[in-house]
Amino acid sequence: MLKQLPLSLRKSSRSEVRSQFAALCYRIKLDRPQILMITSRRSGRWIVPKGWPEDGLTPAECALKEAWEEAGVNGMAHDLCLGLFAYAKSISDQVSYPCVAMIYPVKVKLLSKHYPEKTQRQRRWMTPKTASKSVSEPELARILRDFDPKILR
Asked: What are the φ/ψ torsions at residue 83 (nearest 5 degrees)?
């Protein structure tokens, strides 16, 4: 398999669709996958960790960094993009930007008790079916519902 290269970013205009990288954080419990979901800071909706591209990091590395900051995940990111989903990123009550998030699997080895956004979010392990029902983006729901960690072997 080809290894992803780090990103080299350029400036964009405010009207362009933004790209983010998301982490599907998972573990295997009793031979079944569980997905770690977190709440958003503003509305408290269930989401997956995601964030902006960073110069010098691969998309999978960006996803892993967001998983640490938002959910306290220590783990291993895979370079395989599971898919993408679209959503509106709210910047304020009046402003939102169209975004597309590419989602990368992150195998969770350990959840830290202390991490940057601990006081701003909740986290919860869910089955893929429950996780898919907890999100509002249809493409993300399908990715969560259909996730099978066997494809990563």
From this structure: 150, -170
